[in-house]
Please model this.
Amino acid sequence: MKMKKRLLALFVALTMLTGCAANEGGGTGGESQGSAGAQELRLAFAVEPATIDPQKCTLMGEATVMLHMFEGLYRLDGTKVVPAGAKSYEVSKDGLTYTFHLRDGAKWSDGKEVTADDFKFGFERLVDPATASPGAYLAGMIKNATKINKGEMDVSKLGVEAVDDKTIKFNLEYPAPYFPGMLSTAAFLPARRDLVKKYGKEYGTSPEKLAYNGPFKATKWTHGEEMVLERNENHWDAANVKLNKVSIQIIPDPSTQLGMYENGELDYVEVPTELAANYPDAKKYSTGGVDYLQVSFVNGKYYSNKNFRKAISAALDREEYVKMAFGGVSESAKRYVLPDVLGVKGTYGEEYPLEAFPANAEPEKAKEYLAAAMKELGVSSPGTIEITLSTADTEDSRKGAEVIQEQLTKNLGIKVKVNQMASKQYWANWAKSDFEFMVGGWTPDYSDPRTYLDLYISGSGSNRGVYKNPAYDELLEKSNTNDLKTRFDALFEAEKIVCDDLPIIPLDVRKKQYLINEKLKNFQPSFVQLNYNWLHAEFTE
Model:
């Protein structure tokens, strides 16, 4: 849920967000769709945002909305990180101090000037344990952020300084060349001290209990039905924002969404995987999400054995899994880290190629690994091994779990019980590390291998399988350097450990198919946070 959610998000096949498309288009929909005159974008979310408070952001849909209502220091434009609330920055030679210069003339929707203190307060609020922000972990490279979030240090000690109204300085714990990119995430948006003080716990619960410094502002929120955003005329770049209005309907059923698109009531829509074959012209886009099997090193007596984990991986036919569970829309995983993230100069996958997992099962190799595991575990027969696979209560999750169950039973001869549970319970169990074997996944918070690899550092809040590997931890520590070649070499070695040691067993790279109004142009998708950019979108005749 890729943030922590939320954006820490185990994927669990939950459709948090419905909509991510580009200007190529995949169909026109109904005749009434899109108007160049009205410039109103109509879309649907399957899950309603729980909040519009950036520091409370959890779901992907929330992040997309907030990244348009608020503006961080930098933003993601396609695959590039570009200036937004800041116009420029400098970094010290040791990589530990970043100084950002804010734009002149930037205002909040209520007319007040945007200041460095607004950003400083946003960061303080993010890491303050009283906020209980699910995205607090993202600020871990800022000096003292982790200690503050654990309640070990006062928030006033955070390494963020408002030098003056237009200058903000960050002191980091270690060099983080990806820091400007991280600033484009929803967690790092500004907040107004006066409004938080005024509204208290009500801050961010309704459109009128906020001010907005982004290109849009919320004007209506009817819970369970609709959210409406309108162009923020006080935004510094308002003249280049073409859309006047964005209407978001809450429609849980994907088939209903599809019908509304075909009737001209929505401007783009995700095609359900079971119907993908009916829409050959739909466009396919990567979500950045990697689905995998999460194993527990403390629950269940088999998973701490490396040969057992390797047996499971070799027994999986990933190509068949993608075909049966997702209608062939996704792609089988060849590695853990998404190759599309940024590398030293180009993309990580181009600079560090890796094919750790074959598309098809290797039954004989799987049986060899299992035999070695059984000897080490003192197990006499595969039929005596019984494992429980936990998954969420979505249709994709059910189908995927059943495919895995069948493959492991067929290729290993072990017993696999599928435990499908309500999503709320699933998340609760994950948070408590109360599972032995779980279908999960990750969507990147920023375009860098670390967003995937940080999860398995010993003691990480995301390391719910309680994996520990000192060599892995050392490589992540080694990557904290300004020397990009050294950094990425270390990250690549860490990824290879994940693919060999298998604290998780990658299954597929999640992709989705969309239909989009052909009149809608300059609409940019991004695999980071499964976000999409409306900033320069417009309808043309």
Remarks:
- The chain has two domains: 54-211, 286-510.
- Confidence is low (pLDDT under 50) at residues 1-33.
- The longest strand covers residues 283-295.
- Residues 238 and 437 are 49 Å apart (CA to CA).
